[in-house]
Write a structure and sequence with these properties.
The chain is α+β, with helices and mostly antiparallel strands. It has ten helices and 15 strands. The chain has helices at about 1-10, 10-15, 80-85, 130-140, 155-160, 195, 200-210, 215-220, 265-275, 290-300; strands at about 30-35, 40-45, 55, 90-95, 100-110, 115-125, 145-150, 165-175, 190, 230-235, 235-245, 250-260, 280-285, 305-315, 325. The protein has a 15-stranded mixed sheet that branches. Strand 11 and strand 12 form a beta hairpin. About 45% of the residues are buried. Pfam families: Acetyltransf_18.
Length: about 325
Amino acid sequence: MATSLRKLRMLQKCITTSRVSIRRPCSSNPGSKLPSVEGETILHNPRPPGRCKIRQLHPREVSVLSNSQPVEGSRLRNEELRLMYDTDPNGFFLATADDGDVVGTVAALRLSDKLGFIGFHHVRDSFLEEGARLWDVAVGYLGDRNIGIEVAMQDVEKYMELGFKEEWRNGCFKGSGIPLLPEVQSNRLLRSVAEMGFGRVVDFDTDVCGEPRVKFLLKWLRTDNPRAAQAVLEDNRVVGYGVIRPLQRASSHRIGPLLAENTALAQVLLLSLLSSVPQQTLYLDSPLDNPSFTRLLETDLKMEQVQERARMYTRGNPHVNVRKVFGMLSKDIG
């Protein structure tokens, strides 16, 4: 693993010499000034003149994480960002200039003793060297774990040189005014997650994703709209579930996770979730390994694929059953 870590830290040179997705700037909000946080943990301090301060992110600062969302209109609300932050509060870091301006962020999540994930990596163009320092902090925090990332396709080769392997590809789909199929809305297989309880849904999620994420899901599944978190039951067992949540932009929502035993069940869930927010703009990140589901999105629902990304790991797929994943939770937390 020492060799792998050395390779990962070589990204410092890659970041400062070539354009990669983690540097993609936010055009609408290039920086945020935050007050100093009492009790903050400062890393790499003291620092050479001209370098930024890297420290842990405070809960009230989660809004700066939205700068890492590359697709315009798909930014998460603070409520969802806070739920993601709670996954591993010690693993969120930011870089600030001397005037308090936030110039970069990164999240390094310890999902288990063996698995980690790096996301929310965003650095302003005028502070590219801080991207390398943030990456180094993230890799060091995750230690001897299988590390996952999700990157734009043009950056795959760079990360392969650093020891990552591409496991599958996700398409980011967007649709507005999506047509609905009325026969799905009263499907007898569907149940509100709040109505049936969370335990069986969490068990199904663990079976598909390979790692338990109980604490996070118990919060993510609690939605204001009971139709926004639904499950499919067969023989009194969960065979699929999906969640839809609002985004920052008005009349915009994001679906994820969306997991099911097969494409037919995923379609039932998807259409029911869509019917809960009619005439909205919708986003869904879906593995491209499911061509029949992709056809449903593009042909029947008229959704457009606006981006393609690669999910990569340093030690291979951590037992995620991609054939049962029709909507990813997030590119930033795995």
